[in-house]
Amino acid sequence: MKREWWHNKVAYQIYPKSFYDSNGDGIGDLKGIISKLDYLKDLGVDIVWLSPIYVSPLADQGYDISDYRDIDPRFGTMDDMDELLKEAHKRGMYILMDLVVNHCSDEHEWFRKACEDPEGRYGKFFYIETVKDGKLPCNWRSYFGGPVWERLPGHEDKYYLHVFHKKQPDLNWENPDLREEVYRMINWWLDRGLDGFRLDAIINIKKALPFRDYPADRDDGLTTVHNMLKEAKGVGVFLREMSDRTFKPHRAFTVGEVFNERPEEIPDFIGEGGYFSSMFDFAETVFGQSEAGWQDNIDITPDDYRNCVFETQKKIADIGFISNIIENHDEPRGVSRYIPEGDQSPESKKLLATVYFLLRGLPWIYQGQELGMENIPVASVDEVDDISSIDAYQVALDAGWSEKDALKLIGKYGRDNARTPFQWDASENAGFTAGKPWLRINPNCREINLETEKADPDSVFHHYKKLIALRKSGEYGDTLVYGELIPYLQERHNVMAYLRKSKEQTLLVLANFQREPQTLPLPGKVKKLLLNNLPDDPQITEEIRLAGYQAVVLELSRE
Ligand code: TEU
Ligand code: CA
């Protein structure tokens, strides 16, 4: 595989609204991010992805953009953005923005003009259909609930398509005129010095046309968009064109939010000369998900988690470089999801960090993950901000669930879990804002916060620093970045273990993913203990005895 500059880097996702508020209005902002660049640098972060900061009504927290070429005043100004780029580059860091081009906002000028003249140039930027006798063009259900069709303002008989919220009209990628506008916008940002993008919901840009119904999968008579996506062929033509016209000439770094890709397409996506530099692994994220709603989801066990991760590793092998995560702004906190309920502790969090961070691929940290931030309990649906949680709550009620149990589902799967403000210190608003935070702060900020963890050499935070240092070390870096990944003891219950093997070295990552101790065989002689998440070293003979939730990294002898 061709080596790229970013392979040995560490990437970090910032959710700007909840990172750091510099002016006391309760909303995180660009100046706040600039003031924390040294923190990120010191942690060992190189590449930073910012969730959207463009002008937006924030119907879907910025994933509904009304002006692609300006910054929302709540987040700052274009000058702040230029300064962020300058300050990041000064520190040898790279900034990515979120590229949200499956849809824009219904408040975007394009959509307003489309409403004025649906037959005109901008009408053709969207999917607008004339509806007779009230029969919608198809029965797809939007990701956030309800039909994907909404009446076009000002027109009795016309409807527009939105696979997400009704304030997020889908852009018509079949129209070359629209594609040109998008490419101009992307190049405009890259010319300003932006380093690349994360590509939002990118598979959705290709629709299976003409519109048609699929079998209903709930009582609402509607069908998941996934049924349409399975049939949509040819997204690669758009992605190839976009990449050739924008990313490639700028040598931009890109990471795709890619769900449901076909295995045979992986080389096209992230192989040499692929559409993107990398894409996220969502195998463990989508595990157990049900089309019927959150109430039918199946919990993921440590064995399931391991099997999902290894499945991806095998699928990708050395075709490309996958991006590894345990959480993002759409998912619950990884430590609350992948560690069995009730077992969350600094030790188990460090175990999870170890096993995912040292996988083959680019490791990503979502803000607060490095502190071991957890899900937030929900007392009432009134305190929920996330539109998808509010929909899923209703779906659960309709399926006969009690309010109490439906709330528990939000607490488990809701997007607010990852969106609560970053916990900088133990003060009332966790040091996030001098004002009133836009979203409630996790009450556990008194224990889980940066200031406290910085002072404690055994904290989750310091463990992340050690993992980063190990992956960047001259001695082991090459093996951890490029070495082959070979699963070890995959048949053992509650064990996650793998070898990372290069010509020169064999490393073993070995984790006991349960409360009870376990004694495990070793595949060879141990040369050196490189990392341990517990204070006491494990007993090593031909076997190794690991305490509950102990995870170690060992160097093995080659003879
Ligand atoms: O997420 C896309 C999204 O919602 C997926 O999780 C989708 O549900 C998936 O394709 C199902 O398999 C992105 C953003 O990350 C999210 O915050 C936005 O709300 C969404 O796009 C719309 O822009
Ligand atoms: Ca602010």
Task: Describe what this molecule looks like in 3D.
The chain is α/β, with parallel strands linked by helices. It folds into three domains: 11-102 and 176-377 and 415-460, Alpha-Beta Barrel (TIM Barrel); 109-161, Oligo-1,6-glucosidase, domain 2 (Alpha-Beta Complex); 482-556, Immunoglobulin-like, CATH 2.60.40. The protein is built from 18 helices and 23 strands. An eight-stranded parallel sheet has the order 13-12-10-5-2-1-15-14. Strands 16-17-18-23-20 form a five-stranded antiparallel sheet. Strand 12 (253-256), helix 8 (266-270) and strand 13 (278-279) form a beta-alpha-beta unit. The model has no long low-confidence stretch (mean pLDDT 97). 1-O-alpha-D-glucopyranosyl-D-fructose (TEU) is lined by residues 60, 63, 100, 143, 164, 200-201, 257, 259, 329-330. 1-O-alpha-D-glucopyranosyl-D-fructose (TEU) binds at residues 60, 63, 100, 143, 164, 200-201, 257, 259, 329-330.
